[in-house]
Amino acid sequence: MTSTYQQQLDAKVARITAQFSNYDPPSLEVFSSAEHNFRMRAEFRIWHTEDDMFYAMFERDADNQKQVIRIDEFPIADKSINALMPVLLNELKATEILSKRLFEVHFLATLKGEMLVSLVYRCPLNAEWEIAAKALSDKLNIKIYGRSRGQRVILTDDYVVEELQVFDQSYQYKQIESSFTQPNARVCQKMLEWACNAAKQSDKDLLELYCGNGNFTLPLSKHFNRVLATELAKSSVYAAQWNIEKNNIDNIQVARLSAEEFTQAYNGEREFRRLEEAEIDIASYDFDTVFVDPPRAGIDDDTLTLLQRFERIIYISCNPDTLHDNLQQLAQTHKITQFALFDQFPYTHHVESGVLLEKI
Fold first, then answer.
1. Dihedral sign, CA of 118, 121, 124, 130?
2. Which of 15, 67, 98, 326 has the greatest count of CB atoms below 10 A from its CB?
3. Binding of S-adenosyl-L-methionine: at which residues (predicted)?
């Protein structure tokens, strides 16, 4: 695996450079990943045999049939996950109530050393399970969270608190078990610093669409007078608000709106009680920059039209194909002045990229 990493990264660089050449971007900035131990999340099936059980994944053979692959170690996962995997498995095997009908194990680690383990079952979880799981949680000094169909058992927390360093400041983030977080924390720090450099320093306001748990929102807030961030998922809005308060930041408001809904509100086409309840006055903002980190499907046409009204657009993308498509419209009014590739997902075809667009 180590011998091929640079070759795979070089192939991604060549692919992205060629794909976006028609927009005449500046030279691509490349932010590489560590070759090992870069993932802070790992999810495994638990495979049961007559006298054993083990972590498993699946891959398809030449006939497109699923084959069970036993996983004893997982080099791409963080060292803390690899260290815990065999210890946890042995403890689960030794306790029948914890191993019976266990279906999956999910690990969520942090750079600061916290660990949340989600145990997913195909049977109800009872009081006996809770006692055994709590004892294991205390013994291994980890958080354990139980799930089965229609049931969630939170022994202590269903989240970890990550700490990311951006230049000379650290930020704390609540990362909830079932919510999206960047899996490669060290590359995420590079993305945050790149976005802050692209933002420079403004005496005006920032609009952020698709803010998630506030991953970019927190460090970007230092570079603007005020920030209005939007996100539709309730769990992400809750986490973003927790993160804002935890980091003692006072110039961010979060609106629970989709990008499409914000466009309607900004254009005066529709009123939203959610804005009134949150005491958010869109008209009071003086935006000069918009930051977007949309889902893989990209940005809808009406929101793209809205983006074209701002002086600067910072666009982080997890799908270069939809970014390329969106640029067909954005390039009519803006020019790419910075272009970056972040290798969040080594050994896969996935690429995270970023562009700074400035009005022509």
1. negative
2. 326
3. 182, 210, 215, 231, 293
Distance between CA 67 and CA 61 in Å, rounded? 7
Among residues 114, 162, 177, 352, the one annotated as catalytic is 352
288 neighbors 310 (Cβ within 8 angstroms): yes
pLDDT tens, 78-99? 999 999 999 999 999 999 999 9
- Binding site feature residues: 182, 210, 215, 231, 293
352 is catalytic: yes
In order, the DSSP letters of 213-226 are: TTTTHHHHGGGSS-
> Binding-site residues for S-adenosyl-L-methionine, please?
182, 210, 215, 231, 293
| Alpha-carbon gap, residue 333 to 116, rounded angstroms | 46
CA distances in angstroms from 190 to 2, 112, 259, listed in the order given: 21, 17, 26
Backbone angles phi and psi of 196, in degrees to 5: -65, -40
The residue whose two tokens read 């354990």 is 144
CB atoms under 10 Å from CB of 286, counted, come to 11
| Mean of pLDDT values over 166-187 | 93
Phi and psi dihedrals of 275, rounded to 5? -70, -40
Residue of 188, 196, 211, 318 with catalytic role: 318
Is 318 assigned a catalytic role? yes
Q: What share of the chain is helix, strand, coil (3-state, %, to 5)?
A: 35, 30, 35
Domains and CATH numbers, the chain: 2-36+184-359 (3.40.50.150), 41-160 (2.40.50.1070)
Q: Which residues contact 29 (CB under 8 A, 6 or more apart)?
A: 194, 338, 339, 340, 341
Q: Which residues pair with 102 in a beta bridge?
A: 121
- The answer to pTM > 0.85 is yes
Residue 131, SS3 per DSSP: helix
Least Cα distance to 285 among 245, 253, 249 occurs for 253
Three-state SS sequence of 273-321 = HHHHHCCCCHHHCCEEEEEECCCCCCCCHHHHHHHCCCCEEEEEECCHH
The tokens for 257 are 């709106």
